[in-house]
Amino acid sequence: GPSAQVGERGKSAFHRSQTLGYRNGFAYSRLPTVGIGRERLYVNQLSQAELDELSNKRPTLTYGQAKQAPPSDFIPAHVAFDKKVLKFDAYFQEDVPISTEEHFRIRQVGIYYYLEDDSMSVMEPIVENSGIPQGKLIKRQRIPKNDRGDHYHWKDLNRGMNITIYGKTFRIVDCDPFTQVFLESQGIELNPPEKMIFDPYTELRKMPMRMYVTPSSFDQLKQFLTFDRQVLRFYAMWDDTENMFGENRPFLIHYYLADDTVEVRELHERNDGRDPFPVLIRRQRLPKSFVDKMKTFPRCVLEISNQEVLEWYTVKDFAVGKPITLLGRSFFIYDCDEFTRQFYHEKFGITDFQLVDVKKKAPEEVPQIIPPYNGYGFLEDSLQNCFSLLPQPPRKNFIKMLENDHKVLRYQVALESPNPEERKRRFILSYFLSTDMISIYEPPVRNSGIIGGKYLGKTKVPKPGSTTDNPVYYEPADLTIGATVEVFGHRFIISDADEYVLNYMESNAESFPATTLQSLRDHFAPRRTAVQAAESQSAAGTGRQELEELVRQVQEQLKHHNYLSNSSMREAFLHHDKDGSGFLNKAEFFALCNRFNLPVSDALVNKLISLCSHGENQISYHDFIRAFSC
């Protein structure tokens, strides 16, 4: 109708859509999604084959004429035979004209026939270390069969046949399973497979290598290649103390296994005073013994050769713990490094290396015998004569001398003697804290028959049992009440001490034993109690007088200010004093003062309050009220 004509005219594309596609490099057929004019084709739409079948079908009976078969679809060769390759195993033989080990060579190849375009290629598998360029032997192409322009076809290929390609004859021996199935499906009868022929020279190389016996003579080149950069290291000492100005010096001996040469190097220490010449003997072969006629050989101008040397030094001549003579110098080997130990263990089976201690032993210290004390001067001063020819004064503790300057502890001591007259004598023992010295003075007593004065000058007094090697002197900790002090054979008993001694020990209680401090406290306890009682009585009488005087002054001041006393003030203070102790705390006391307008800001009143205070929070109000009841 008209609408159909308009629709046909409105189309802009009349080509058929493609049915061949490529995915991942492979061709495949696909159904079109749109028709002519880009009309959408539905899934249940009839295909062209079905339409052709319906068009050729004639209405017949059910059991009438057979229907005409539809024409088959056309499939191109590049689609039907895509990625389908026939593979044949073959080999060819080539002559080897210039070789003493092989006369011909067998080279195995693979012949590939590509069905999609009837092309062929020849590939040779790569063999490692073959020395022949291998890989693609004939590139992919259509191979000519004869001079008439014919090309090889898959129908011309079979097992057990020869094929000539570009003048080179290949023998096909076998094919893969896909090739066999394909050719048999096409009606080609395959020949039986043949065995692949291998290259005789390649098979010979796969055999184990022959073991050659090394000749008995040692090869120097092999020694160099085997032991190159391998050096044995020995630690040695050269004892040259027998000669004048000789020393015992350390050295390193290097033995080079590559050429049996020896080198001797000196080990320098820091500040050893020697010039930096590390090499004592340069690297060379060292002779061990010479021939008998070697005495006239001019070694100073000619080098020593094998004709003059009977035996050279080898690795067997070096051993740890043994001496070795190199060019007239005797070296003692006392140690080696770890590589040298491993070499001797593998080469000679030596495992016990007797290491030798070559360190200089310190000389034995000669004990210094101090002569006995001769009794002159102090022990420290006399001891300096044993340490040097010019005696130096002993060191003094100047800090102790400055801190304890003019600090003296004085004690009263009595002489212990079987004579009753001697026991009555009294002495003053002074201990000087700055120098730890003791002096004893006897006060003169008239008509006693004994001349008093200095009994002992300032000196250090050793305790009983003290020795000259370990002197022990009297200290303040040893001076307790009732203790006995032995001064150069005389015994004194401490009976009394200054109170300064007790005060000093109490201020430095951590430096003195508790027994010493307690003995002095017990000695001064009665005396201190009496003094404190007298002071408290004196202080009480003095405080009462001051209070009375202050009360009188406050009363006089209030008279000048015309202050009128309040009779209810005493009752108020007594009322707040619940327990009748006569004391009120500060809060209640000042609250009552504000209530009765007492002048607490006045200086005299503040002083009166301070005298009436007992403790930090209690105030006695009786004396305070008495000052305001005038």
The overall number of domains is 5
Tell me, what is the CATH class of the largest domain?
Answer: Mainly Beta
- Subunit arrangement of the protein: single chain
Trace the largest sheet across and list its strands: 6-5-4-3-8-7
Beta-strand fraction estimate = 15-25%
The CATH architecture designation of the largest domain is Roll
Count of separate DSSP helical elements: 16
Uncertain parts: 1-6
Domain EF-hand: 564-599
InterPro entries: DM10_dom (IPR006602), EF-hand-dom_pair (IPR011992), EF_Hand_1_Ca_BS (IPR018247), EF_hand_dom (IPR002048), EFHC1/EFHC2/EFHB (IPR040193)
Subcellular location: Cytoplasm, Cytoskeleton, Flagellum axoneme
GO molecular function: alpha-tubulin binding; calcium ion binding
Quick structural gist:
This protein is an alpha+beta fold and 630 residues long. It has 16 helices and 25 strands.
Structure description:
It is a single chain. By secondary structure, the chain is an alpha+beta fold. Strand 9 and strand 10 (248-256) form a beta hairpin. It is flat, with a radius of gyration of 67 Å. It starts with a helix and ends with a helix. Residues 1-6 have low confidence and may be disordered.
